[in-house]
User: Fold 5-deoxy-glucuronate isomerase from Rhizobium aquaticum.
Amino acid sequence: MSKLLVKPNGDHGLVTKVTPESAGWTYVGFELHRLKAGETVSAETGDRENCLVWISGSAKAKAGSEDFGSLGGRKSPFEGAPDALYVPMDSSWSVTAETDLELAVCSAPGGGDYKVKRIAPGTHPQITRGKGSNVRLVHNIMPEDDNSAHSLLVVEVITPNGNTSSYPSHKHDRDDLPNESFLEETYYHRLNPPQGFAFQRVYTDDRSLDEAMAVEDGDVALVPKGYHPCATIHGYDLYYLNVMAGPKRVWKFHNQKEHEWLLK
Assistant:
């Protein structure tokens, strides 16, 4: 199995955990919690900022000194816009499930004077990108132009069955603004129906890194550098939650020259 593929560990509690240490990088962390109604998960943010994303289900949430009441409610990540909660560094949060709950915890180094903030469904309108068999539907959660975080960039994407995504191949692995930004990235994948699979390739121009992965429901793919397109197969829609972070909160990517003709 590829060293860039992280499989879920069971189906209850903390089923996925990616830290900078486990990934061998500096910035991005990711967790996926699956809870039953009445169960609680909580954490101190320390020197990192968090973005909690309700993948499915509803839960009551508190963060810092604020009580946000019941958030979430969609039955799956393929049904409607996400609910999310930003929690800055040196704070805390607590989430108590009201139904079966899937909660993602995205993290990156904190800084600045940012405040706890709910990012309600529809805060950022859905965007359609691409054309033909490269169409995908995008829900920004924490885009670079919202000025609401120090490091984190978070987005959901749904790729209809048989389509490609994160394509034409692009990368963001050089700290060379304004041409390109350095951003580590995780992909949390889901399939609909869940027995499906998709493919993701992570590779560099010199092929010193070249990993091709079959991703299944609940898998996480790590993108430390290089291009990272993915494709789903006929009959199965692909969802992924992207978490990105680097030395600057800017998403500036470089397209692979061989495939730029597809953008014309």
